[in-house]
Amino acid sequence: MNVDISKILKANGESLDFEIEKNITDIENYPDVCEFLSPVKVEGTVTNFEGEFLVEAKGSTTVVMNCSRCLKPTTVDVKFGIKENFSNTGKEETETFLGDTIDLTSIVGRSILIGLPMKVVCDEDCKGLCPICGKDLNEGDCECDTTYIDPRFESLRSLFKLDEEV
Predict the structure, then answer these.
(1) 14: alpha, beta or left, given left = phi > 0 and alpha = psi -120 to 50?
(2) Is 31 exposed, middle or buried (0-12, 13-18, 19+ CB in 10 A)?
(3) pTM of the full predicted structure?
(4) Dihedral over Cα of 130, 146, 142, 132: its sign
(5) Engineering a disulfide at 43: which of 6, 19, 150, 163 sits with its beta carbon 3.0 to 4.6 angstroms away?
(6) Sign of the alpha-carbon torsion through 70, 73, 77, 81
(7) CA dist., res. 6 & res. 153, Å (int)
(8) Where do the structural domains in the chain lie, given as residue ranges?
């Protein structure tokens, strides 16, 4: 995902608009993503500020992730923003580049990871999987006894009268 900045490399204060689109097939760096359904689209502006280049962009893509409750594949739209300084002089607190192109691949990858939701649910009413037999509870109830009480909390049970309404 390279941006050619040769037109503004020596022009202080000048800006350049760009649009990039790339298909991602290798999901190794995206641990919760099962598949990218659409190309990653990034559009933005690069501005030359006395040899430092400010990249401001917005991006989007669509991915498939598993539901956190029932593990069904779920489509997720991912939107992200980028605001990053680049320099070819090796200044601190800036990303570096060589030549007359800025490679946005790693910045876009990190931005996608930040834009991914922590938990994905296929439906707000998703019941998930039975913790004992693993049956999808959205398809119906199972016959498992889920009244198990952790033995460490068994002594607290005497504090409650189970037959009374609270």
Answers:
(1) beta
(2) exposed
(3) 0.77
(4) positive
(5) 19
(6) positive
(7) 68
(8) 2-115
